[in-house]
Amino acid sequence: MSYHHGDLRQAVLQAAAERIAADGVAALNLRSLARDLGVAHTAPRHHFGDKRGVLTALAAQGYRQMAERIAVQRGGDLLDAGVAYVQFAVEHPGHFAVMFRPDLVDESEPELQEAVGALGRSLIAAVAAFRGEPVAEASSGDPREQSGTLAAWSIAHGLAHLMLAGVAAPAEGESRAEFIRRTLAHIAV
Amino acid sequence: MSYHHGDLRQAVLQAAAERIAADGVAALNLRSLARDLGVAHTAPRHHFGDKRGVLTALAAQGYRQMAERIAVQRGGDLLDAGVAYVQFAVEHPGHFAVMFRPDLVDESEPELQEAVGALGRSLIAAVAAFRGEPVAEASSGDPREQSGTLAAWSIAHGLAHLMLAGVAAPAEGESRAEFIRRTLAHIAV
DNA sequence: GTGAAGAACTTTCCAATGGAAAGATAGATC
DNA sequence: GATCTATCTTTCCATTGGAAAGTTCTTCAC
Description:
Chain A is an all-alpha fold. The first copy, chain A, contains 9 helices and no strands. Chains A, B: Residues 6-66 form the HTH tetR-type domain.
Protein backbone atom coordinates (compact mmCIF):
# COMPACT_ATOMS: atom_id res chain seq x y z
CA MET A 1 0.00 0.00 0.00
CA SER A 2 1.22 3.48 -0.80
CA TYR A 3 0.97 6.01 1.94
CA HIS A 4 -0.13 9.57 1.31
CA HIS A 5 -3.04 9.55 -1.02
CA GLY A 6 -2.45 13.13 -2.07
CA ASP A 7 -5.70 14.90 -1.34
CA LEU A 8 -7.73 12.38 0.58
CA ARG A 9 -9.87 15.00 2.26
CA GLN A 10 -11.24 16.35 -0.99
CA ALA A 11 -11.53 12.87 -2.47
CA VAL A 12 -13.63 11.69 0.46
CA LEU A 13 -15.96 14.67 0.21
CA GLN A 14 -16.47 14.17 -3.50
CA ALA A 15 -17.08 10.45 -3.17
CA ALA A 16 -19.45 10.98 -0.25
CA ALA A 17 -21.44 13.54 -2.24
CA GLU A 18 -21.73 11.15 -5.17
CA ARG A 19 -22.87 8.26 -3.03
CA ILE A 20 -25.40 10.30 -1.10
CA ALA A 21 -26.73 11.68 -4.36
CA ALA A 22 -27.17 8.15 -5.65
CA ASP A 23 -28.51 6.28 -2.63
CA GLY A 24 -29.33 8.81 0.08
CA VAL A 25 -27.57 9.72 3.32
CA ALA A 26 -28.72 6.61 5.14
CA ALA A 27 -26.91 4.37 2.67
CA LEU A 28 -23.56 6.13 3.05
CA ASN A 29 -20.90 4.04 4.69
CA LEU A 30 -17.34 5.08 5.18
CA ARG A 31 -15.93 1.60 4.78
CA SER A 32 -16.94 0.91 1.20
CA LEU A 33 -16.15 4.51 0.37
CA ALA A 34 -12.61 4.05 1.64
CA ARG A 35 -12.42 0.79 -0.26
CA ASP A 36 -13.19 2.59 -3.52
CA LEU A 37 -10.58 5.23 -2.77
CA GLY A 38 -8.00 2.54 -2.10
CA VAL A 39 -7.33 3.51 1.50
CA ALA A 40 -7.89 1.85 4.85
CA HIS A 41 -11.34 2.37 6.33
CA THR A 42 -9.92 4.44 9.14
CA ALA A 43 -7.97 6.81 6.91
CA PRO A 44 -10.74 9.43 6.66
CA ARG A 45 -10.87 9.65 10.43
CA HIS A 46 -7.58 11.48 10.43
CA HIS A 47 -9.13 14.28 8.37
CA PHE A 48 -12.66 14.33 9.72
CA GLY A 49 -12.63 12.70 13.12
CA ASP A 50 -15.66 10.53 12.56
CA LYS A 51 -18.56 10.02 10.18
CA ARG A 52 -20.38 13.05 11.53
CA GLY A 53 -17.25 15.03 10.76
CA VAL A 54 -17.43 13.97 7.12
CA LEU A 55 -21.05 15.05 6.86
CA THR A 56 -20.28 18.31 8.64
CA ALA A 57 -17.49 19.13 6.20
CA LEU A 58 -19.73 18.21 3.29
CA ALA A 59 -22.49 20.49 4.58
CA ALA A 60 -20.02 23.34 5.03
CA GLN A 61 -18.81 22.88 1.48
CA GLY A 62 -22.43 22.96 0.32
CA TYR A 63 -23.19 26.20 2.15
CA ARG A 64 -20.11 27.86 0.72
CA GLN A 65 -20.80 26.76 -2.85
CA MET A 66 -24.44 27.77 -2.63
CA ALA A 67 -23.51 31.18 -1.21
CA GLU A 68 -21.16 31.73 -4.14
CA ARG A 69 -23.76 30.67 -6.64
CA ILE A 70 -26.31 33.08 -5.24
CA ALA A 71 -23.83 35.93 -4.98
CA VAL A 72 -23.10 35.60 -8.67
CA GLN A 73 -26.76 36.30 -9.37
CA ARG A 74 -26.48 39.73 -7.79
CA GLY A 75 -27.76 42.46 -10.04
CA GLY A 76 -30.33 40.04 -11.34
CA ASP A 77 -33.85 39.54 -10.24
CA LEU A 78 -34.69 38.15 -6.78
CA LEU A 79 -36.19 35.30 -8.73
CA ASP A 80 -32.76 34.65 -10.23
CA ALA A 81 -31.41 34.13 -6.75
CA GLY A 82 -34.27 31.77 -5.98
CA VAL A 83 -33.70 29.83 -9.17
CA ALA A 84 -30.02 29.58 -8.31
CA TYR A 85 -30.92 28.22 -4.87
CA VAL A 86 -33.16 25.51 -6.24
CA GLN A 87 -30.83 24.67 -9.10
CA PHE A 88 -27.96 24.19 -6.70
CA ALA A 89 -30.02 21.85 -4.54
CA VAL A 90 -31.10 19.77 -7.52
CA GLU A 91 -27.65 19.66 -9.07
CA HIS A 92 -25.89 18.89 -5.77
CA PRO A 93 -28.29 16.55 -4.01
CA GLY A 94 -25.44 15.00 -2.05
CA HIS A 95 -24.60 18.33 -0.48
CA PHE A 96 -28.17 19.49 -0.04
CA ALA A 97 -29.09 16.27 1.77
CA VAL A 98 -26.82 17.17 4.69
CA MET A 99 -27.52 20.91 4.74
CA PHE A 100 -30.06 22.14 7.29
CA ARG A 101 -29.81 18.82 9.09
CA PRO A 102 -28.84 19.47 12.72
CA ASP A 103 -29.21 15.77 13.42
CA LEU A 104 -26.49 14.82 10.94
CA VAL A 105 -23.80 17.40 11.51
CA ASP A 106 -21.81 18.92 14.33
CA GLU A 107 -23.24 22.40 14.60
CA SER A 108 -20.52 23.59 16.92
CA GLU A 109 -17.93 23.20 14.16
CA PRO A 110 -16.57 26.69 13.38
CA GLU A 111 -16.03 25.94 9.69
CA LEU A 112 -19.69 25.01 9.40
CA GLN A 113 -20.89 28.10 11.25
CA GLU A 114 -18.82 30.37 9.02
CA ALA A 115 -20.23 28.68 5.91
CA VAL A 116 -23.80 29.03 7.18
CA GLY A 117 -23.14 32.69 7.86
CA ALA A 118 -21.87 33.20 4.35
CA LEU A 119 -25.02 31.74 2.86
CA GLY A 120 -27.20 33.83 5.16
CA ARG A 121 -25.45 37.00 4.06
CA SER A 122 -25.93 36.07 0.41
CA LEU A 123 -29.64 35.52 0.92
CA ILE A 124 -30.14 38.76 2.82
CA ALA A 125 -28.16 40.66 0.22
CA ALA A 126 -30.27 39.18 -2.56
CA VAL A 127 -33.51 40.34 -0.95
CA ALA A 128 -32.07 43.75 -0.09
CA ALA A 129 -30.84 44.23 -3.66
CA PHE A 130 -34.28 43.36 -4.93
CA ARG A 131 -35.85 46.01 -2.76
CA GLY A 132 -33.30 48.55 -3.84
CA GLU A 133 -32.13 49.00 -0.28
CA PRO A 134 -28.53 49.35 0.78
CA VAL A 135 -27.33 45.98 2.00
CA ALA A 136 -26.20 47.50 5.25
CA GLU A 137 -29.75 48.34 6.26
CA ALA A 138 -31.13 45.05 5.13
CA SER A 139 -30.84 43.36 8.47
CA SER A 140 -33.00 45.86 10.30
CA GLY A 141 -35.49 44.13 12.52
CA ASP A 142 -38.69 44.93 10.68
CA PRO A 143 -40.85 41.81 11.09
CA ARG A 144 -42.68 42.32 7.80
CA GLU A 145 -39.39 42.53 6.01
CA GLN A 146 -38.18 39.41 7.74
CA SER A 147 -41.30 37.49 6.94
CA GLY A 148 -40.90 38.39 3.29
CA THR A 149 -37.36 37.08 3.28
CA LEU A 150 -38.40 33.96 5.13
CA ALA A 151 -41.29 33.42 2.73
CA ALA A 152 -38.96 33.67 -0.25
CA TRP A 153 -36.53 31.30 1.38
CA SER A 154 -39.32 28.90 2.26
CA ILE A 155 -40.74 28.59 -1.22
CA ALA A 156 -37.32 27.99 -2.76
CA HIS A 157 -36.38 25.55 -0.04
CA GLY A 158 -39.67 23.73 -0.31
CA LEU A 159 -39.58 23.49 -4.08
CA ALA A 160 -36.08 22.08 -3.92
CA HIS A 161 -37.22 19.38 -1.52
CA LEU A 162 -40.30 18.51 -3.53
CA MET A 163 -38.28 18.24 -6.73
CA LEU A 164 -35.71 16.02 -5.07
CA ALA A 165 -38.51 13.90 -3.63
CA GLY A 166 -39.81 13.38 -7.15
CA VAL A 167 -43.06 15.17 -6.39
CA ALA A 168 -42.48 18.15 -8.67
CA ALA A 169 -40.91 18.22 -12.12
CA PRO A 170 -40.88 20.46 -15.21
CA ALA A 171 -43.64 19.96 -17.74
CA GLU A 172 -42.70 18.46 -21.09
CA GLY A 173 -40.70 20.77 -23.26
CA GLU A 174 -39.98 23.07 -20.35
CA SER A 175 -36.50 23.71 -19.03
CA ARG A 176 -35.81 23.22 -15.38
CA ALA A 177 -34.97 26.89 -14.95
CA GLU A 178 -38.27 27.96 -16.52
CA PHE A 179 -40.20 25.57 -14.33
CA ILE A 180 -38.52 26.79 -11.16
CA ARG A 181 -38.96 30.43 -12.09
CA ARG A 182 -42.61 29.96 -12.97
CA THR A 183 -43.26 28.31 -9.61
CA LEU A 184 -41.29 30.78 -7.51
CA ALA A 185 -43.01 33.67 -9.27
CA HIS A 186 -46.01 33.18 -6.99
CA ILE A 187 -44.14 34.75 -4.10
CA ALA A 188 -44.96 38.29 -2.99
CA VAL A 189 -42.14 39.67 -0.92
CA MET B 1 -40.63 -13.54 28.76
CA SER B 2 -44.30 -13.13 27.90
CA TYR B 3 -45.27 -13.74 24.33
CA HIS B 4 -47.80 -11.59 22.51
CA HIS B 5 -47.12 -8.01 23.32
CA GLY B 6 -50.64 -6.93 22.43
CA ASP B 7 -50.18 -4.30 19.78
CA LEU B 8 -46.53 -4.38 18.95
CA ARG B 9 -47.01 -2.86 15.54
CA GLN B 10 -48.50 0.33 16.90
CA ALA B 11 -46.06 0.41 19.80
CA VAL B 12 -43.10 0.21 17.44
CA LEU B 13 -44.42 3.02 15.26
CA GLN B 14 -45.02 5.27 18.24
CA ALA B 15 -41.62 4.57 19.77
CA ALA B 16 -39.91 5.07 16.42
CA ALA B 17 -41.65 8.42 15.93
CA GLU B 18 -40.56 9.57 19.38
CA ARG B 19 -36.98 8.54 18.88
CA ILE B 20 -36.70 10.11 15.45
CA ALA B 21 -38.26 13.28 16.81
CA ALA B 22 -35.64 13.36 19.54
CA ASP B 23 -32.46 12.34 17.73
CA GLY B 24 -33.18 12.22 14.00
CA VAL B 25 -33.67 9.35 11.59
CA ALA B 26 -30.02 8.45 11.44
CA ALA B 27 -29.94 7.71 15.16
CA LEU B 28 -32.86 5.30 15.05
CA ASN B 29 -31.95 1.73 15.80
CA LEU B 30 -34.37 -1.12 16.05
CA ARG B 31 -32.43 -2.96 18.70
CA SER B 32 -32.57 -0.44 21.51
CA LEU B 33 -36.12 0.35 20.50
CA ALA B 34 -37.09 -3.30 20.96
CA ARG B 35 -35.20 -3.30 24.23
CA ASP B 36 -37.37 -0.47 25.54
CA LEU B 37 -40.52 -2.25 24.43
CA GLY B 38 -39.41 -5.38 26.21
CA VAL B 39 -39.30 -7.58 23.13
CA ALA B 40 -36.56 -9.36 21.21
CA HIS B 41 -34.77 -7.26 18.64
CA THR B 42 -36.19 -9.35 15.83
CA ALA B 43 -39.81 -9.07 16.94
CA PRO B 44 -40.62 -6.00 14.81
CA ARG B 45 -39.46 -7.86 11.73
CA HIS B 46 -42.58 -9.97 11.81
CA HIS B 47 -44.75 -6.88 11.42
CA PHE B 48 -42.59 -4.76 9.17
CA GLY B 49 -40.15 -7.06 7.41
CA ASP B 50 -37.10 -4.90 7.97
CA LYS B 51 -36.05 -1.45 9.11
CA ARG B 52 -37.14 0.11 5.85
CA GLY B 53 -40.53 -1.46 6.44
CA VAL B 54 -40.82 0.32 9.78
CA LEU B 55 -39.98 3.66 8.19
CA THR B 56 -42.38 2.99 5.33
CA ALA B 57 -45.24 2.27 7.73
CA LEU B 58 -44.37 5.37 9.73
CA ALA B 59 -44.41 7.50 6.59
CA ALA B 60 -47.77 6.06 5.55
CA GLN B 61 -49.19 6.86 8.97
CA GLY B 62 -47.84 10.38 8.61
CA TYR B 63 -49.46 10.91 5.21
CA ARG B 64 -52.80 9.65 6.49
CA GLN B 65 -52.76 11.79 9.61
CA MET B 66 -51.71 14.87 7.68
CA ALA B 67 -54.44 14.30 5.10
CA GLU B 68 -57.02 14.12 7.89
CA ARG B 69 -55.72 17.23 9.51
CA ILE B 70 -55.91 19.21 6.29
CA ALA B 71 -59.36 17.85 5.43
CA VAL B 72 -60.67 19.14 8.74
CA GLN B 73 -59.63 22.63 7.69
CA ARG B 74 -62.01 22.52 4.74
CA GLY B 75 -64.33 25.49 4.62
CA GLY B 76 -61.54 27.59 6.02
CA ASP B 77 -59.03 29.69 4.22
CA LEU B 78 -56.37 28.15 1.98
CA LEU B 79 -53.99 29.59 4.51
CA ASP B 80 -55.65 27.46 7.17
CA ALA B 81 -54.75 24.38 5.20
CA GLY B 82 -51.19 25.63 4.88
CA VAL B 83 -50.97 26.34 8.58
CA ALA B 84 -52.31 22.84 9.28
CA TYR B 85 -49.62 21.38 7.01
CA VAL B 86 -46.80 23.17 8.78
CA GLN B 87 -48.23 22.58 12.24
CA PHE B 88 -48.46 18.87 11.58
CA ALA B 89 -44.84 18.75 10.45
CA VAL B 90 -43.63 20.63 13.51
CA GLU B 91 -45.76 18.64 15.93
CA HIS B 92 -44.91 15.28 14.36
CA PRO B 93 -41.27 15.64 13.42
CA GLY B 94 -40.78 11.89 13.67
CA HIS B 95 -43.33 11.29 10.96
CA PHE B 96 -42.36 14.24 8.80
CA ALA B 97 -38.72 13.15 8.80
CA VAL B 98 -39.58 10.03 6.80
CA MET B 99 -42.22 11.57 4.54
CA PHE B 100 -41.11 12.59 1.04
CA ARG B 101 -37.96 10.53 1.50
CA PRO B 102 -37.73 8.00 -1.32
CA ASP B 103 -34.34 6.92 -0.05
CA LEU B 104 -35.74 5.80 3.30
CA VAL B 105 -38.97 4.03 2.40
CA ASP B 106 -40.22 1.34 0.07
CA GLU B 107 -42.22 3.30 -2.47
CA SER B 108 -43.74 0.19 -3.99
CA GLU B 109 -45.63 -0.52 -0.75
CA PRO B 110 -49.39 -0.25 -1.55
CA GLU B 111 -50.27 1.09 1.89
CA LEU B 112 -47.80 3.92 1.38
CA GLN B 113 -49.07 4.72 -2.09
CA GLU B 114 -52.65 4.87 -0.87
CA ALA B 115 -51.66 7.19 1.97
CA VAL B 116 -49.78 9.49 -0.39
CA GLY B 117 -52.81 9.57 -2.62
CA ALA B 118 -55.01 10.57 0.29
CA LEU B 119 -52.78 13.49 1.13
CA GLY B 120 -52.65 14.56 -2.50
CA ARG B 121 -56.44 14.61 -2.69
CA SER B 122 -56.63 16.69 0.48
CA LEU B 123 -54.21 19.24 -0.90
CA ILE B 124 -55.98 19.48 -4.23
CA ALA B 125 -59.32 19.85 -2.51
CA ALA B 126 -57.98 22.63 -0.30
CA VAL B 127 -56.79 24.65 -3.27
CA ALA B 128 -59.96 23.95 -5.22
CA ALA B 129 -62.13 25.07 -2.32
CA PHE B 130 -60.11 28.27 -2.09
CA ARG B 131 -60.67 28.99 -5.75
CA GLY B 132 -64.36 28.29 -5.40
CA GLU B 133 -64.13 25.48 -7.91
CA PRO B 134 -65.97 22.22 -7.55
CA VAL B 135 -63.55 19.66 -6.20
CA ALA B 136 -64.42 17.31 -9.00
CA GLU B 137 -63.00 19.64 -11.63
CA ALA B 138 -59.97 20.50 -9.65
CA SER B 139 -58.56 17.03 -9.70
CA SER B 140 -58.83 16.81 -13.46
CA GLY B 141 -55.40 18.34 -13.77
CA ASP B 142 -52.34 16.92 -12.19
CA PRO B 143 -51.33 19.14 -9.26
CA ARG B 144 -47.80 19.37 -10.53
CA GLU B 145 -49.10 21.05 -13.66
CA GLN B 146 -50.68 23.79 -11.67
CA SER B 147 -47.93 26.10 -10.59
CA GLY B 148 -50.14 27.88 -8.05
CA THR B 149 -50.84 24.70 -6.19
CA LEU B 150 -47.22 23.68 -6.32
CA ALA B 151 -46.14 27.12 -5.12
CA ALA B 152 -48.48 26.89 -2.14
CA TRP B 153 -47.25 23.42 -1.35
CA SER B 154 -43.65 24.54 -1.70
CA ILE B 155 -43.84 27.44 0.70
CA ALA B 156 -45.58 25.35 3.36
CA HIS B 157 -43.17 22.48 2.85
CA GLY B 158 -40.17 24.75 2.93
CA LEU B 159 -41.27 26.62 6.02
CA ALA B 160 -41.84 23.33 7.81
CA HIS B 161 -38.30 22.24 7.00
CA LEU B 162 -36.75 25.55 7.99
CA MET B 163 -38.59 25.55 11.31
CA LEU B 164 -37.52 21.99 12.03
CA ALA B 165 -33.96 22.89 11.11
CA GLY B 166 -34.08 25.66 13.68
CA VAL B 167 -33.66 28.37 11.07
CA ALA B 168 -37.09 29.93 11.48
CA ALA B 169 -39.08 30.52 14.66
CA PRO B 170 -41.92 32.74 15.89
CA ALA B 171 -41.04 36.18 17.20
CA GLU B 172 -41.41 36.81 20.91
CA GLY B 173 -44.98 36.94 22.08
CA GLU B 174 -46.20 35.46 18.82
CA SER B 175 -47.98 32.13 18.62
CA ARG B 176 -46.70 29.51 16.25
CA ALA B 177 -49.92 29.61 14.26
CA GLU B 178 -49.66 33.37 13.79
CA PHE B 179 -46.07 33.10 12.72
CA ILE B 180 -46.82 30.42 10.16
CA ARG B 181 -49.83 32.25 8.81
CA ARG B 182 -47.95 35.52 8.51
CA THR B 183 -45.18 33.82 6.57
CA LEU B 184 -47.41 31.80 4.27
CA ALA B 185 -49.47 34.92 3.54
CA HIS B 186 -46.82 35.97 1.02
CA ILE B 187 -48.06 33.41 -1.44
CA ALA B 188 -50.13 34.43 -4.45
CA VAL B 189 -51.95 31.44 -5.87
C1' DG C 1 22.95 15.85 4.45
C1' DT C 2 20.95 14.22 8.81
C1' DG C 3 18.02 13.46 12.35
C1' DA C 4 14.06 14.59 15.00
C1' DA C 5 9.10 15.78 14.84
C1' DG C 6 4.84 15.59 13.14
C1' DA C 7 1.45 14.42 9.50
C1' DA C 8 -0.80 10.73 6.90
C1' DC C 9 -2.04 6.29 6.66
C1' DT C 10 -2.37 1.06 8.09
C1' DT C 11 -3.25 -2.89 10.97
C1' DT C 12 -5.61 -4.95 14.47
C1' DC C 13 -9.17 -5.23 17.64
C1' DC C 14 -13.92 -4.43 19.62
C1' DA C 15 -18.95 -3.41 20.42
C1' DA C 16 -23.14 -2.59 18.22
C1' DT C 17 -26.28 -3.10 14.53
C1' DG C 18 -29.50 -5.29 10.98
C1' DG C 19 -30.81 -9.40 9.38
C1' DA C 20 -31.37 -14.77 8.48
C1' DA C 21 -33.01 -19.12 10.25
C1' DA C 22 -35.12 -22.14 13.17
C1' DG C 23 -37.59 -23.01 17.31
C1' DA C 24 -41.07 -21.89 21.14
C1' DT C 25 -45.56 -20.13 22.75
C1' DA C 26 -50.15 -18.38 22.61
C1' DG C 27 -54.68 -17.65 20.64
C1' DA C 28 -58.15 -19.14 17.33
C1' DT C 29 -60.91 -22.52 15.04
C1' DC C 30 -63.17 -26.60 14.56
C1' DG D 1 -59.00 -31.09 23.15
C1' DA D 2 -56.13 -31.21 18.78
C1' DT D 3 -54.45 -28.59 15.21
C1' DC D 4 -53.25 -24.42 12.78
C1' DT D 5 -51.38 -20.05 12.38
C1' DA D 6 -49.78 -15.67 14.04
C1' DT D 7 -46.55 -13.85 17.15
C1' DC D 8 -42.42 -13.73 19.47
C1' DT D 9 -37.59 -15.76 21.05
C1' DT D 10 -33.00 -17.67 20.57
C1' DT D 11 -29.01 -18.16 18.16
C1' DC D 12 -25.92 -17.07 14.66
C1' DC D 13 -23.58 -14.14 11.09
C1' DA D 14 -21.75 -10.18 8.15
C1' DT D 15 -21.11 -5.42 8.20
C1' DT D 16 -20.28 -1.15 10.21
C1' DG D 17 -18.11 2.75 12.98
C1' DG D 18 -14.70 3.52 15.99
C1' DA D 19 -10.47 2.99 19.42
C1' DA D 20 -5.59 2.12 19.84
C1' DA D 21 -1.15 1.41 18.48
C1' DG D 22 2.12 0.93 14.94
C1' DT D 23 4.28 2.26 10.17
C1' DT D 24 5.69 5.28 6.50
C1' DC D 25 6.32 9.60 4.53
C1' DT D 26 7.40 14.67 4.64
C1' DT D 27 9.28 18.69 6.55
C1' DC D 28 12.36 21.48 8.68
C1' DA D 29 15.97 22.92 11.94
C1' DC D 30 20.77 22.62 12.21
